[in-house]
Amino acid sequence: MSDSEEEESPDHQLKLVVLGDGTTGKTSLATRFAQETFGKQYKQTIGLDFFLRRILLPGNLNVTLQVWDVGGQTIGGKMLDKYIYGAQGILLVYDITNGQSFENLEDWYNVVKKVSEESERQPLVALVGNKIDLEHIRTVKADKHQRFCQENNLSSHFVSAKTGDSVFLCFQRIAADILGIKLNKAELEQSQRVVKADIVNYSQEPVTRTVNPPRSSMCAVQ
């Protein structure tokens, strides 16, 4: 094997599905991660938005994250189980200033568990409290968040899609956990200074899109 072959690291692809009520900031979270931008005007996601971003994990491991942003109104829809199926990671997102958005996560999580029963491998599920920039008007207490994590064996995250606080770190930790990679303190700190990765974003309506994006479109990211 040549030196160049030894240096090459195969790409890993992970499907992450973002679930939760509307107005919790799911799209803002995905956009902040994938494009490092924040849209001040709220726009409801109808059906599904899809984002890609490649990140580098320790060991020179290239990982392409497929982020499926599911519209909040789809919880009773026929396509939801198809969106979730095959995901390696699920982000249950709520607004820390909206208690109802936290309570409704039980319904979202029940759908995830039902779909996962048919999967060979169980997805990693993360609880994500968004809008920590509004800590002064928080209504969902941190201990309630942590209790839900402990009861359901979920990973715990607090982020602000608006300021970008801990957003990259959230996705980095989830990807690392899925792949069984431990991040040390230096690597976590380095993630806060990460150089922008290559980005692809496109949005499609559920009527016209396929459940699984064509493999060629994912491999085309350079």
TrEMBL record:
Could you say which cofactors this protein requires? Mg(2+)
Compartments, record wording: Cell membrane; Cytoplasm, Cytoskeleton, Cilium basal body; Nucleus
EC annotation from Swiss-Prot or TrEMBL: 3.6.5.2
Instruction: Specify one Pfam family.
Output: Ras
What are the UniProt keywords, alphabetically?
Acetylation, Cell membrane, Cell projection, Cytoplasm, Cytoskeleton, GTP-binding, Hydrolase, Lipoprotein, Magnesium, Membrane, Metal-binding, Methylation, Nucleotide-binding, Nucleus, Phosphoprotein, Prenylation
GO MF terms, alphabetically ordered: G protein activity; GTP binding; metal ion binding
Q: What membrane topology term does the record carry?
A: Lipid-anchor
What reaction gets catalysed by this protein?
GTP + H2O = GDP + phosphate + H(+)
State the InterPro entries in the record. Answer: P-loop_NTPase, Small_GTP-bd, Small_GTPase
Which coarse location class applies to the principal site listed for this UniProt protein? membrane
Q: Which GO terms describe its cellular component?
A: nucleus; plasma membrane
> What's this protein's family per the entry?
Belongs to the small GTPase superfamily. Rab family.
The record describes the protein's role as:
The small GTPases Rab are key regulators of intracellular membrane trafficking, from the formation of transport vesicles to their fusion with membranes. Rabs cycle between an inactive GDP-bound form and an active GTP-bound form that is able to recruit to membranes different sets of downstream effectors directly responsible for vesicle formation, movement, tethering and fusion. RAB28 is required for shedding and phagocytosis of cone cell outer segments (OS) discs in the retina. Also participates in nuclear factor kappa-B p65/RELA nuclear transport in endothelial cells.
**The protein, known as:** Ras-related protein Rab-28
Which source organism does the UniProt entry give?
Answer: Catharus fuscescens
Taxonomic path: Eukaryota, Metazoa, Chordata, Craniata, Vertebrata
**Gene that encodes the chain:** Rab28
